Amino acid sequence: MAFADYQYEIYFSALAGRISDFPMDYETLERRASAAMDPSLLSYVAGGAGDESTQRRNVKAFDNWGLVPRMLVGATERDLTVEAWGMSFPSPLFMAPVGVVGLATGDRHGDIAVAQASAATGVPSHFSTLMEDSLEDVAANLGDTPGFFQLYTPKNRDLAASFVERAEKAGYKGITVTLDTWVPGWRPRDLATGNFPQLRGHVLKNYTTDPVFQELTGGSEDPQVIVGTWASVFGNSLTWEDLDWLRSLTKLPLILKGITHPDDANRAIDAGVDGIYCSNHGGRQANGGLSSLEMLPSVLESVDNRVPVLFDSGIRSGSDVVKAIGLGATMVGLGRPYVYALSLGGVPGLVHQLRATLAEADLLMAINGYPNLAAVRENVQPAN
What we know:
The chain is α/β, with parallel strands linked by helices and 384 residues long. Helix content is 44%, strand content 11%. The two termini are 37 Å apart.
């Protein structure tokens, strides 16, 4: 079944008197989810660094590119599949790692809910180190859909090695190392309310279930000891010299997240990484920078098809997904929209959001005459 067929499911359900409970556009989704979410969770998910100009720039950057239709192509069937790291994915869409997604459902099992939605849709996810459920319990809900483990590399190397070993044993298909969050950025929304979930003992399940971390705490179950120990090991400002060590921890694909400079991308590949993840953390970490989309072409030129290039930051719709693919990204990550959808409607709400995003992308390819992703890349042009 084509992704685009989801719209007919919605129309035919309406004919039977069942109007969808879930939003069809991002603005409505954001508004409704914002009204329903706990204020502390909302500030964390919606907020960005500084005056949030980079966050806004991430979104606006897509207006600088346009899709050029090609007629009489007969794009009745579209192929959105992607091949990467010896795996085949049904589409280029994935869910980006979000550290508080575990808190996005009333039962605080949001990480498992994401895995269940991933299993239901075939859309892979990169799961944060910061979970409300253990990485093993989350992986057990993925079905046949590949999952990736995102690593916030701790200062303690034994703990880092334990996380990676656990992820490998649990069946994750790659390790995504985030580079730009060894210290939290200046986030006024969170600072105004003193909202720091980890310091309140949230999303630390992967730590409290880890044997190395348990040794560090002396087996204590005291929340103050756990949080204090976490604070002492989090925040490893990695250097190029650390890449050999990280590479030695696993034979799984090693992906570096936070690369936006072409020289960094080239050096990382020379050091043996298997994927480049072009992202500025959705504008949450550093304000005042260019959008990730503005940096993507130069990163892709430097990579020169040697490894897959993942992209996120500013994706709000299927149209954005198609444009990022058009510029050359291998796969495209959804962030805030899927957290809003999960918080608003649980697994069904998230499944709807993923299917809706894919339906829009697929319909754009159909109407514009793009039978495959290669055709998309041939027909994206600057808007000015």
